[in-house]
Amino acid sequence: MLQTTEFALLRRIAAEQAGSRAPSLVAGVVRGDRLAWTGARGKVDGAVPTTDTQYRIGSITKTFVAVLVMRLRDEGKLDLNDALDKHMPGTSFGAVTIAQLLAHTGGLTSESPGQWWERAEGGDWPALETSLVEGALRHRSGARFHYTNVGYGVLGELVARLRGTTWLDALNTEILAPLGMTRTTPHPRAPAATGWAVHPYADVLLREPTPDAGAMAPAGQLWSTVSDLARWTRFVGGDTGDVLHPDTVAEMREPAHVEDDATWTSGYGLGLQTMRINGRRLTGHGGSMPGFLAMVLSDQNSGTGALVMANTTSGVAVGAVANDLIELVEQHEPALPAEWEPMAEADPELLALTGQWHWGPTPYVLRLLPGGWLSLAPVSTRGRQSRFRPEGRDTWTGLDGYYAGETLTLHRSASGAVTHLDLVTFVFTREPYGTPEAIPGGVDEQGWRTREG
């Protein structure tokens, strides 16, 4: 990056580390498919931390568990609307759905009963399940967002049962190994930062414990590095390799809940936090455990992402720092648009479909996209618009907007000529109210008039 950009980025993390009195702080910026910048302030064991120094990433662990669950969904081994009882019968909260657990809307208690789980050795699943026999549900399922670490302990057990192994073995086999994330582990491996609490009124430190969380580990057990977390930042942004289809990650990014309905600024999807800051849509997750803070954020529109980790219990605004790093990069070195180039190939039949169509009297434009995808949008730009992915010769599935998940069907006459489009019962014709036989309710036989009467 330009020296001016790198200095601005370094200045931001230096100010945060000094102002927040963090023993050490590391950060990275991702652009496209690479780690474009890294920075570090403070010391770990007397030396400047590197991109290979491990930090505990806390609840960022949840994003990995969510991906494991979505892989099971994509393989047909579960449905997000399945009640937990279908796969894990016998719990006291079996009516909660898998989607609700992913999105923290199931109403489960936030923390596991008993000792403060982040600082105590965790028990196994039977012990956790027994502790939840009474009082597991704090809210009616689906009624509201209520962040629950317990819910991800449950999802970790769900993954283990459906895979016939531990959630950690599934994680290593299905995610970490394919992505080359060899330094993401459940326990620290040198070089690794020590977790510290900083005294609020004096510049002295207190070592924090890092026990194994047992059945609660899926909520926040993992350790990682700048290099590994940069790969995960790219994953969140859509560079998924062969681990998950990018459309599934896009589904995970969509907010299942927002905290302020009118002009929402923060929400939660399926295992991912999402937010809007200064007009920018960001997705990722934060993490905190005693002695550590972390954040991953990605702007999927620009392809720029950022990560921040610090070995302190509190004080560092990792979310604000990650957002600021993205903003600084976009201000100093805005990404160039991808070069336009013609399609490698275009089906002549699909090409003939392009152009103007009408929903009643309202004109729309149908465009052909690479891969046989279609885009349908009103000419005025006001109204419902979506992209559609091909599913067969004459059918497409909506990917976004009002028509997400709905079917667009091309209708033909007996001779094979195209007559009209049917989009979830809405009829689109080449001329306003053309093809009268396809219009429900018919079309006035007198046709268009110059005046009433």
What do these coordinates show?
- The chain starts with a helix and ends in a 24-residue tail after the last strand.
- The chain folds into 2 domains: 15-42 and 50-332, Beta-lactamase (3-Layer(aba) Sandwich); 348-438, Beta Barrel (Lipocalin), CATH 2.40.128.
- The chain has helices at residues 3-20, 61-74, 98-103, 125-131, 149-163, 167-179, 226-237, 246-253, 318-332, 348-353; strands at residues 24-31, 34-42, 55-56, 196-198, 205-207, 223-224, 257-258, 266-268, 273-277, 280-289, 292-299, 304-310, 355-359, 362-368, 374-378, 386-390, 395-398, 407-412, 418-423, 426-429.
- It has 10 helices and 20 strands.
- 25% of the residues lie in helices and 23% in strands.
- It is globular, with a radius of gyration of 26 Å.
- The chain is of the alpha+beta class and 453 residues long.
- Helix 2 (61-74) crosses helix 6.
- The model has no long low-confidence stretch (mean pLDDT 95).
- The strands form 4 sheets. Strands 2-1-12-11-10-9-8-7 form an 8-stranded antiparallel sheet, with helices on both faces.
